[in-house]
TrEMBL record:
GO terms for cellular component: membrane. It is found in: Membrane. It comes from Candidatus Harrisonbacteria bacterium RIFOXYD1_FULL_40_9. The keyword Transferase applies. This is Bacterial sugar transferase domain-containing protein. GO terms for molecular function: phosphotransferase activity, for other substituted phosphate groups.
Length: 444
């Protein structure tokens, strides 16, 4: 995270705090007049503060503190309203489930949500306008060529960006313009150079760039810029040393608490959802021949194989001729199977796999041994995805369309590696939240 992002995220957070307590004070003044100050305010302060910290987490997950890409008024309105509706519903639940707060929040909470929504919309729109009017702080010189460079160039030209602006690009060391690097930096007011790793290793290039450090420029790997923009790692730019530098981080606290929390949560969910699970079992049995639960061998963490449980969505003879890639409009899928796949309800039996410790809630998608064997000889670094346990959902699943080809596997691996590098409790929560959001979109 760069200084520009840190400063502006801090401003957004401080602004939200001010608006939150301002909206609370105004709500109590509307309800009780001058009597709101004192004991009445103190009674409301604790529960509303608890609620606000919950809201901050929801706002973060919804992307309201991620301002890399400029937002239109429509996008801002849609995101803000949907997020406050979700946050407000959770607040209602908190206040009514925990009555010991000692307040009757129904009317107060509704008034507060209305006032806060108006204030927050004004604040966010004003902030959005101010940020958009400011020239991107990083004026970028790209040095390199290939798919990653082309993707960055197209992305930043098609949509305005709040942090990065490409002001010049050159193909590499053989580009004649490289000999005039200092003049280009001065003329274009470059303050950030993003270059491919192999160029950075070249002694002549390193010397040339070093000579210009006094001009106040920063130098980063092009792969890092790509990752920041697209939230995936450019596979074509990676070498073995990249994995040694980026995937050796210890996540001891995260790994220690993840397993017991997931086991408890999966058990609770399995019990709560058991009526739905039984209903799905019945529907499958009534509409097609064969077992309702489908078992399949998959490759898990550290390459260990395990038995995966899913609801059967295909005909029982679907693989009579051996393993096959499953397509989006696969003719082998049954009528009930189409519904289960569309809503992802076919994945629910994997709660048993989480309880057993085969998989996690979040991680790379577990693949079949036959496909893993094929893909590891076709896609570079494919086996690195087995560094962690696979997941019921994952960064690749929520960011990339349903795919069944080698190219799709290549694209999804870039998201999987991003997850491996950045995995954390907050990222897991964000993935789970977006998964739930996508579930309701699919249901609709």
């Amino acid at each position: 995270m760069n200084w520009f992002q840190r400063v502006n995220q801090s401003l957004l957070l401080i602004g939200d705090f001010v608006l939150f307590y301002g909206a609370l004070a105004l709500t109590l003044y509307i309800r009780y007049g001058d009597a709101f100050y004192g004991p009445l305010l103190e009674i409301h302060l604790v529960p509303f503060t608890v609620m606000f910290f919950v809201w901050i987490v929801i706002f973060y997950i919804a992307g309201l503190y991620d301002f890399y890409a400029a937002q239109s008024t429509l996008e801002l309105t849609r995101t803000l309203i949907s997020t406050i509706l979700i946050a407000g519903s959770i607040a209602m639940g908190l206040f009514y489930v925990i009555p010991s707060f000692g307040i009757t929040p129904k009317t107060n909470l509704l008034i507060f949500i209305g006032i806060f929504t108006l204030f927050e919309y004004w604040w966010r729109k004003s902030f959005n306008t101010r940020i958009t009017s400011i020239e991107a702080p990083y004026r970028v010189l790209l040095i390199g060529q290939g798919q990653s460079v082309d993707a960055i160039t197209v992305s930043l030209k098609e949509a305005p960006h709040r942090v990065y602006q490409i002001v010049y690009s050159m193909n590499g060391l053989d580009d004649p313009e490289f000999n005039h690097l200092a003049q280009i930096i001065l003329d274009k007011k470059v303050n950030l150079i993003a270059l491919q790793a192999h160029i950075k290793k070249d002694a002549h290039a390193a010397r040339k760039i070093y000579q210009n450090l006094a001009l106040g420029i920063e130098v980063i790997n092009l792969a890092d810029l790509y990752e920041t923009l697209f939230k995936r790692v450019p596979l074509a730019e990676l070498e073995e040393v990249w994995f040694l530098e980026n995937l050796i981080k210890q996540h001891r606290i995260y790994e220690t608490i993840k397993r017991p929390v997931e086991a408890i949560l999966a058990t609770v969910l399995f019990i709560i959802l058991s009526p739905l699970l039984l209903l799905i079992v019945l529907l499958i049995r009534l509409t097609s021949r064969g077992a309702s639960i489908y078992t399949q061998t998959r490759v898990g963490g550290k390459g260990k194989q395990f038995t995966l449980y899913k609801f059967r969505t295909m005909r029982s003879d679907a693989e009579a001729h051996g393993p096959q890639w499953s397509g989006k409009d696969d003719a082998r899928v049954t009528f009930i199977g189409k519904i289960l796949r569309h809503t992802h309800l076919d994945e629910l039996p994997q709660l048993l796999n989480i309880i057993k410790g085969n998989i996690s809630f979040v991680g790379p998608r577990p693949e079949r041994p036959e496909f893993v064997e094929e893909l590891k000889h076709t896609i570079p670094y494919y086996e690195i995805r087995h560094l962690v346990k696979p997941g019921l959902t994952g960064w690749a699943q929520i960011n990339y369309r349903y795919g069944s080809s080698i190219n799709d596997a290549y694209q999804k691996l870039q998201y999987d590696i991003y997850y491996l590098k950045n995995r954390s409790i907050l990222l897991d929560i964000a993935i789970l939240t977006r998964t739930i959001k996508l579930f309701f979109i699919n249901v609709e």
